[in-house]
Amino acid sequence: MLRLSKKYQRLIRTSEEIAGIRKAGALNTAVLDHVAEHIREGMTTEEIDRLVASFTEQHGGICAPLGYEGFPKHCCTSINEVVCHGIPSPDEFLLDGDIINVDVTTILDGYYADASRMFLIGNVRPELRRLVQVARECMELGAAACRPNGFVGDQAKAITQHAHKNGYTVVRDLCGHGVGVNFHDDPEMDHYYSGRKGMQLLPGMVFTIEPMINMGTYDCFIDEEDGWTVVSEDELPSAQWEHTFLMTENGLEIITH
Question: Angle CA(183)–CA(73)–CA(88) in degrees, nearest 5?
Fold first, then answer.
């Protein structure tokens, strides 16, 4: 029998924990479905935040981002060149041709699930549609590369190869993460392949895969005014998709499908 170190033992979720995480995942998915039904040109990102907050509360959940390390809103809304962690605002309107990532993390009965989706607003240019599609493919190929007892680097390699093949870059300063009983935990799911294997992915682990794919350089900066909003260095568009996954004996299960 494989003897696990304490570091690995604490990351293996029990059947009770997995059941709770699945319920959190179902609500998290419902929140994003609710956003999908209402998002439209002309609305503000503050309105998106209110949709997320009200729906989550009505269904017994808590929005994990609110107050997390001082984050002021219930979700992240990242438009065009914003890579991630965009702060919803009553002064920010969705315009025809925008692409936007809405990132939602839900706590239900103490368990966490985390996912994000891209939304296309109005008449989006073909080159932006392609970026959004390839970003989704990167997440899916990364997940397909994960095997029980494999390594973080397996999905990073698949993601990086697909992004580069299509002329895009993978953000290197941000990564996916363990989730489920905490908002952020091991394993650190690096999506850029640097040749490192990374942590081994064992059955019972729960984590996100959420590659950020840039049209231009992979370099980013954080907005000095709010201390949160991550923007591509060359201010070219970025796209991201995210799911929470459970590693099983047979491969990955999507928790936030």
Answer: 125
Query: What global pTM score does this model have?
Result: 0.96
Residues of the chain with pLDDT under 70: 1-3
Residue that is written with structure tokens 């607003």 in the block: 121
Burial class (CB in 10 A: 0-12, 13-18, 19+), 123: exposed
Mapped onto helix, strand or coil, the DSSP state of residue 1 is coil
Q: Which secondary structure element, helix H or strand E, spans residue 62, and what is its range?
A: strand 62-63
Could you give the residue ranges of the DSSP H alpha helices within the chain? 6-9, 15-38, 45-58, 126-145, 152-165
Cα pseudo-dihedral 69, 142, 136, 100, rounded to 10: 10
Beta bridge partners of 231: 82, 221
Helix (H, G, I), strand (E, B), or coil: what is residue 213? strand
Would you state the pLDDT for residue 3?
Answer: 66
Q: What is the dihedral of CA 67, 73, 79, 83, to 10 degrees?
A: 0
Instruction: Name the β-bridge partners of 79.
Output: 100
* Model confidence pLDDT, tens digit, residues 222-256: 999 999 999 999 999 999 999 999 999 999 999 99
Rounded CA gap, 251 and 228, in Å? 34
Q: How far is CA 80 from the centre of its chain?
A: 16
Provide the residue type at 66 as one letter: L
pLDDT for residue 1: 43
How far is CA 174 from each of CA 20, 81, 87, 92, 220, rounded to the nearest angstrom? 27, 15, 17, 24, 10
Compute how many other C-beta atoms are within 10 angstroms of the C-beta atom of residue 96: 10
d(CA 242, CA 84) in angstroms, rounded, equals: 11
For the chain, what's the residue count? 257
The CA-based angle 94-177-241, given to 5 degrees, is 30
